[in-house]
Design brief:
Number of helices: 11
Strand content: 5-15%
Shape: elongated
Order of helices and strands: HHEHEHHEHEHHHHEEH
Structural class: alpha+beta
Largest sheet: 4 strands, antiparallel
Helix content: over 70%
Low-confidence stretches: none
Number of strands: 6
């Protein structure tokens, strides 16, 4: 127990004794984690937007007018449901199709009602239809082709080409953000390693004495690892505060919306607490790794 206490005490004292060097590392970690927080929040919201867009794109399947009996319609539905990527099917009768068409094209002057209202009843030229949703946007084209091959289908279209291109672009942005976060992690490890290396160099006499009296490498390493973890932990405080209060302000300012009521931001909780926990973990792990690498190199060189 006394050995463990000594390790933590020396680790915390190392930060205080070499405060100027520690402050440099803390500042570097703070800036790095701030950038990480921004990209993590951006990535999570892009992910959410992508799913929202994908779920809004549906396949409109028109049924041939020679297949209007309930038995035929049920048979077609069963074949569509058997397609692996299909998640939900909604039947829309020709009467519902006409009402939806009038509603979409309507305005305050009721021009659409005057033009298309008389087509209700036996004069309805539209076809019965299925509204099909798929599990992912990427499977939309393949599912559409499979549906068109089913007997009794007049036409199947999703009209989501532009949306799919936008989704693909968002996916690329998300991937770039992930690469940047990983790169920032390596930069933080490098910065902390350099700071700890300088600290180790100033204490090389102390380390040499410890090795002379028989201290093991890990006995020497642990205080520096704790020191790096403390630096990473302190460096994560400001990014956490910015994440919690900054994202909360942004969410309230935008009223939780990105564009009208179609695309929404991810709710503040539990997102900000999950990101905060991740920042703490990244800070401490990066600090520990930076210290471990630096001490390991010094111990190898000093043999």
């Amino acid at each position: 127990m006394s050995r463990i206490t000594r390790v933590f005490r020396e680790g915390f004292l190392g930060v205080i004794r070499h405060f100027a060097l520690s402050l440099s590392s803390i500042s570097s970690v703070t800036v790095t984690l701030l950038l990480m927080a921004v990209f993590l929040l951006l990535s999570v919201n892009i992910n959410s937007i992508t799913h929202q867009l994908e779920s809004s794109v549906q396949i409109h399947v028109q049924i041939d007018d020679q297949h209007e009996t309930q038995e035929q319609i049920d048979a077609i539905r069963a074949q569509i449901e058997a397609i692996p990527s299909v998640t939900h099917i909604t039947y829309s009768s020709k009467e519902e199709e006409l009402e939806t068409f009038i509603q979409i094209n309507g305005d305050e002057s009721d021009v659409a009602e005057k033009l298309y209202g008389p087509f209700r009843g036996d004069n309805n030229p539209l076809l019965n239809a299925f509204i099909v949703q798929t599990s992912t946007g990427e499977s939309m084209n393949a599912v559409t082709e499979q549906i068109e091959a089913i007997e009794g289908i007049f036409n199947a279209s999703h009209g989501g080409t532009a949306t799919m291109l936008f989704v693909e672009t968002l996916g690329n942005v998300r991937n770039v953000g992930f690469v940047i976060v990983v790169a920032l992690g390596f930069i933080a490890v490098f910065l902390i390693s350099n700071t700890i290396r300088t600290s180790i160099h100033s204490r090389r006499r102390e380390i040499s004495i410890m090795r002379t009296v028989g201290a093991t490498n890990w006995y020497i390493r642990w205080p520096f690892i704790i020191e790096g973890m403390v630096i990473g932990l302190i460096g994560s405080i400001i990014p956490i505060l910015v994440t919690i209060f900054g994202y909360k302000y942004l969410f309230q300012f935008a009223n939780g919306l990105i564009w009208n009521q179609v695309l929404t931001l991810v709710p503040v909780t539990p997102l900000v607490f999950e990101i905060s926990g991740l920042l703490v973990m990244i800070g401490t792990v990066v600090g520990a790794l930076g210290s471990l690498f630096s001490v390991g190199k010094f111990l190898r060189w000093s043999r």
